[in-house]
Every structure is written in C-alpha cells, then in structure tokens.
C-alpha cells in the first residue's frame, strides 16, 4: 500500500511522537504527552531505561528468535501489552477500538481503562479474549461495584486495580491549555482546531469523546472536581483492596506499586500480580523511575506473584531491560498511543512493528534467542565501587 503519511520513514517511537504532535491540536496532544508538575518523572522514566546496560554474548545461534511470553497463565506472542489509557479518543478518534483490535491481532493483552472513551463491553468484544479490565475505585461504592459487575459480565478474566491516584495528578500543561469540564471553546482552541483540520473533521464525525463507562453519571458534572469524585477516591485503602480481592473471582493485579513493602502486602493478600508503575510520570514528579524501583521489588516478591512494569517503554530493548531486572512482562502506554496519533490504524500498526522489530533485533544482538531466557546474567557486571 502507498504510504501517504510517511509512516515508513518513522524509525522509532520518538519519530511517531513527532508526527503525532504535528497532526493533533496542542491541548489534545499535551493531554497524553504531558506529565506531573516539572515532568521530571516523565523524562526520567525513559532515561532510566536507557541507563540499564546489557552485555551481548556472541557465537550463539540466534537464527530463530522467540518473543513469546507467559503471564498470569496466558500465553502471548510478545512480552508486552497496551496499558490502560483514559479518554484516548480525544488524542485520535477511535483510538481505543483501533488498539484493542490491534492487540487481539498481535496476541498481546489490551487493558481497557475505566476512564476509556469506549465502553468496557465494546472493548471486551474488540479485544476478544485478550482484554484485561482496569478499575478505578470510586468514592461511591455503588459505582465501583457497578463497574466490577459489568467487567464480570463482559467476561474479563483479569482485573487491574489502580492504586496510585489518591489525588489526581497536577499536570501543568493541562492547566496552561485551560482544559476544563465542560470543555470550553476559547480563541486558542479555535486556532488549534483550524491548524489541525484533519483531527477536527474526524473528531466532528466521531462525536465528542467522553468517559464512556460513566457517561450517565457524568452528565451532571459541571467541574473537573465532580469528574474526579466519580472516578477516584482519596479514601481507597488496603481494606478496600481486600474486599475487591474477595469479590473478584478472576486474576487480580494492583497497578501503581513502587514500594517493596506494598508489593509484599499485595502478595500476602492473595493478589496475582502487580504493575510497578508511576502512571507514566503523570501523578507525581518526585518519585522513582519505575525501572529503578523494580529490582528491590523483585527481590522482595521472590517470585510469589507476577511482576509487570510500565512507564517509559519506548524501545524493544526496554522489554529486555525490564526482564533482566526482574519483571515478567511490561505494558506500553504512550508508545502505541503515539502510533495512533501519527496515523490512525496504520500508525498503530507501525508503532507495533517498530517495537517488535526492535525486540527481535535486540534478542539477536544480545545472544539470547528466547525472551523467557533473559535474566540478570545479561546485565552488565559492574566493577566493585561503580
Ligand atoms: C493520557 C493517559 C491516560 C491514562 N489513563 C489511565 C487510566 O485511565 N488508568 C490507569 O490505570 N492508568 C492510566 N494511565 C497510565 C498508563 O496506564 C501507564 O501507566 C503509563 O502510560 C505508562 O507510561 P508510558 O506512557 O511511558 O508507557 C494513563 C496514561 C496516559 C498517558
């Protein structure tokens, strides 16, 4: 097919990010691209991945590369899935369904966000067995139970409870862009819409994106504070998690763990795994990059449950770095989102292709033909004192 968008010239996820930035109005691009406050964590997440060095071994037969990985008893064709992202259709129309279908096709997990712009039922259908459901615990227990019951009815086998939003992150770019509920058309917004006619037209055709699972509840919302109260609660505690553990019969993951003792407590409570995550640097600017938090957590968990990591995955080799430092699996958020932003379905395909090609190449270069065999022995040994 003719590549009118120039996607074939995108060599990396960073290239796709730049293409997406050109196609999307600033307020919508920043909504996905931005991080908390100074954005230190956002920057450090991917820098810290880059700092992990692996030492290649040569003269190993790498003519056949196997990227398959198993997590939570499910077999996948690659060791990563799509992280839950709320309101992604504001980034590019139909982004949710595009990515859910892509994950099904590639046999990797797709995590449907509570705050997605598409209902969890539609996403379960599109991901067709590859869907996991991410839960935000609401201040209203009826809202939480409603979502859990719907996820159960939609036959999700894995529920991922997000723990790292006791308060919404302060994202300075969104404040500068005057993002508000209800959405306001300011002169700056009008200018951005005019400068990005393709986005404006497609968004017009698909309808204004909303938070679909709560659409009825949010109709009455007049402020961002109203939206937050429906979605999240500062009162979410370990007792609530225990109730969810008892309530949910499928696999249960806790997302947003950064402290080894929290990880151990999740294992003690019978959780099936954790996602070591700082929410892609969107919650706080002062915390550790996840790849730096991972080794102590892996050490404390001692293989008692699955460890998944996210925040900062931008290259295929990052999946090997995560595995070498103790993770079983990873999630990519913005990496695949930038693909959709750069070119819709074709862009999502390109992002997936880039990550997969980089992964296969890195396994070959490292001298480990089988992803599951990557471990601490691939980490570069440091001389004492370094
Ligand atoms: C725009 C945006 C929206 C997000 N929405 C959610 C969400 O609804 N639920 C959740 O648990 N995490 C959410 N996250 C965090 C992601 O699941 C994931 O932890 C993060 O994107 C990983 O970092 P990365 O983007 O560097 O890969 C969101 C992230 C972004 C960028």
Automatic annotation (TrEMBL):
The keyword Oxidoreductase is annotated on this UniProt entry: yes
Keywords in alphabetical order: Flavoprotein, FMN, Oxidoreductase
GO aspect biological process, one term: aerobic respiration
Residues annotated for glyoxylate binding in this entry: 136, 171, 279, 282
Presence of keyword Flavoprotein: yes
Membrane-crossing residue ranges in chain numbering: none
Residue ranges constituting the FMN hydroxy acid dehydrogenase domain according to the UniProt record: 5-384
Binding site for FMN: 84-86, 113, 134, 162, 255, 277, 310-314, 333-334
Active site: 279 (proton acceptor)
GO CC terms: plasma membrane
GO molecular function: FMN binding; L-lactate dehydrogenase (NAD+) activity
Cofactor(s) the protein needs: FMN
Protein family (similarity comment): Belongs to the FMN-dependent alpha-hydroxy acid dehydrogenase family.
Full protein name: Alpha-hydroxy-acid oxidizing protein
